[in-house]
Amino acid sequence: MNALLKDPMYNFRPQGSQQMLIYEDLARSRMREAEQVARARRLVRLLGAAKRWDRLAKWAARRADRVNAIL
Questions:
Q1: Are 35 and 29 in contact (CB under 8 A)?
Q2: Considering the domain boundaries, does residue 65 fall inside one?
Q3: pLDDT band at 63 (very low <50, low <70, confident <90, very high)
Q4: Assigned domain for 26 exists
């Protein structure tokens, strides 16, 4: 016999009003949207940090070149 047919969760039906289920769906949707926004902001922060480190590395290289030219 199939294990899914014996599993009580297979036949699970929520015991709430339809309105409550709509609110749960809305909450899940908002959570997903918040996670997507957080992911996008994280990428923006990482890009900004990479640009800052790139500028710093270029500045350090120019400074090192100037010091080597003086010596």
A1: no
A2: yes
A3: very high
A4: yes
